[in-house]
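Reproducibility note. Readers wishing to regenerate the assembly model reported in the main text can use the exact inputs given here. Chain order matters: entities are listed in the order in which they were concatenated for prediction.
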Amino acid sequence: MLRPTLNELLGGMQRTILEALMPELTSPYAQGQAMSAIGMLAHAAAVLEAAPAYDAAEIKDLRATFAALLRLGNKHLARKSGLRGALARATRASAKNPADRRAMEAAMAEFAAAVALGSADESVARHVRAYLRRNLDRSRNLLGASIPVA
Amino acid sequence: MDQLRLTEYLKRKMPHAREHRVVGLKRISGGSSRETYAFDLQWNEGGETRTRPMIGRRDPTGGLLKSDREREFKVIAAMHRAGLKVPEPLYLELDASVMDRPFFIMHRASGQTGMGAFPAAEAETTRAKVADDFLGELARLQSLDYRECGLEILGAPENPEAPARIQTAHWAEIYERDRMGEHYPILDAAFAWLKANPVVTDRIVVVHGDYRSGNYLYDENGIIAMLDWEMAHLGDPMEDLGWASMIFWGRDELAGGLMEREAFYRLYEAKTGHRVDRTRLFFYQVLGNAKMAAICLTGIRDFVERRTSDAVMPFLELLLPALFDDLANQLRLV
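Running the prediction on these inputs yields the following structure tokens for the assembly.
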């Protein structure tokens, strides 16, 4: 393994900013930016570690959700809603190797919109809501649930 | 901003004075849509030395909003003439050759501010005074006749349905522009819902556009000045009320960290003499969350595409889960 590892490098850069640069900075604005840069590096280290698992879980869940929607059959997808087309696009995107995550999310966006507008069948809505709940949980686990603080 | 060029500029603007000196020029955080600088101007006038605290706001190279500083300056000037609590605007410079980018200068009001909800550690008496002023100023803002204030320049909506449609279209366009090819299913759903459920306003007022805790200066006597007018426009009075009372700016029962939400609405009704229309309020709270998410995406894109090096921008990503959570709950997506 090459040393320092990427994570060790990121940690080292944080210490360099904190211990070597910060004491030399006199402007509060520059100090604030330096602190944010330290936070950025810490975030990068955490995301580097967690992002592959997040992406894999996301794709797996999208695939499973679209497969479940496909199993429901066309009778649950009103012709006028456009969801049949969205499901066909999602199925093609999920069959690719690697899966086309953006295309799958674009299709999921159409399903979510249909749920928001009340135009989705209840059994469809159940699958979409369950996916969105899991998606939000994953996002919160990866990014936290920050709000602007005083 | 360059101290020498700023001094020369202020000399030209104040020819009646002598011995101009810009003192303590420093960039400060806050107001992420502009570079903001604080300084004192000292000068001699009639043999007397005077000092005035000032703020310079310069267009950024990138950032959260693409807004027009001339429009912002004119709105602040109109609010100042109308007697609202705003910093006195002093000079607007549109010639980019003076200081690399357009900028304006205004008086620097005293007081403190925060980034979001009113600080929980503040005294209860201060909180009550700030809450009262917050809604009092909003009532005064919404009672202004925009024509008498010379604010037709903001573009009057053509009919009572237009404000909701215009704002939805505006922020949907920004989302489309700045999502960098990504799809955020909950945000897509929110814009679809907003387009399908426009509300009809009962009157057209001046909308601040970012009226919330974190955008005012205050002390123990209440609010000193409302800040950040760059998103001002004409529209529905429920827009500012909805934005100010979003759960996002506090995440508890206190609207903006100021006052229990229902009491907040009752005080608004008492101050304005207008009923809070719950349907319109809800619409603008949904729009508010979608708008804030779009603003975050603008900042992230500008950082990714190197239009700004502001180290705060990448952290905007961390705000998205809370906004999506709120939208998902509002639209029963979970």
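We highlight two features of this model. DSSP finds five helices and no strands in chain A. Chain A has two domains: 6-51, 52-142.
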